[in-house]
Amino acid sequence: MRHPILVMFCIGSAVMLSACNRGSDADVARAMKSVNVIDETNLSEVMLTVGDPAEAVAYFARASADNPDRIDLKRGLAKSLVRAGRPAEAVKVWTEVVAMPGTVPDDRVNLADALIRMNEWKRAETELNAIPPTHETYQRYRLEAMVADANKNWKKADSFYETAAGLTTKPASVLNNWGYSKLTRADYAGAAKLFAEALTHEPSLFTAKNNLVLARAAQGKYDLPVVAMTQTERAQLLYTAALSAIKRGDVTIGKTLLQEAVDTHPQHFDEAARALAALDGSVARG
Question: What is the pLDDT of residues 43-72, one digit of tens each?
């Protein structure tokens, strides 16, 4: 009589053990999933920052295809496409992102950025206008300034550039852009001031150095500004000043600056040497 009871006990124990195992398996699965999410997040961050752009595109394209509802993977794909120099494809993906549940204003800002990279200024302006005015970020106002520049709305551009510069701890790039805007308007003194300010924040920014030389040369100031520069940079800046001088009709000064650029460069400065030879040939023929 005890055998059936023993059998039932064994069966019950087996069921209980099976249930315990299933619970244990589920716990392990959940734990592994959490680890995978952490690993995936870290990998995504690496791909978006230091990873090879082409590899990042391949990674996010594959991950996004496997998880089409994951907006974070779509964002990663769009950002990677921009990094890889493929803005047209990035625009397509950002357009999908802004239509997905969970989209945020920054997604539309990034869409506008990709559109500007394609010179689609009007559509970029439309996207920026669709962003709530309460969304006040450096990137948003930097793009707003660029659009205002494209529309030659100088007052609005100045306002947006100033706001953008105040919203970042690294304003050198936006100050350089603002200065270039002033340069195109022939406000050379205002441009020079902004380029110099940019260099106080990022002394190694060569584009700001070159633009500063252009702004000064446009005012007839051909001597190089007092800024940190390498010997190679000095030669290149002298070359910029020389071409500006020649363009303004100050040919003798330009020729002197070209010769100084050739003499200053630590290696052979082919562009300056050719410009000097062409100038000498022109003078000889004249």
Answer: 667 667 656 889 999 999 999 999 999 999
**How many C-beta atoms lie closer than 10 Å to residue 179's C-beta?**
26
Digit-coded pLDDT (tens) for 155-197:
999 999 999 999 999 999 999 999 999 999 999 999 999 999 9
- Between the alpha carbon of residue 258 and those of residues 107, 218, 223, 248, 275, the distances in Å are 48, 17, 13, 15, 8
CATH architecture of 44-114: Alpha Horseshoe (1.25)
**Which residue type does 274 have?**
R
* Domain 136-224 -> CATH class: mainly alpha
Nearest Cα to Cα of residue 176 among 140, 210, 148, 151: 210
CA angle 170, 174, 179 (to 5 degrees): 130
The 8-class DSSP code of residue 133 comes to T
- The CA distance from 253 to 238, in Å, is 11
Cα distances from 87 to residues 11, 147, 180, 199, 204, in angstroms, run 64, 17, 24, 30, 28
The answer to whether 202 touches 171, Cβ cutoff 8 Å, is no
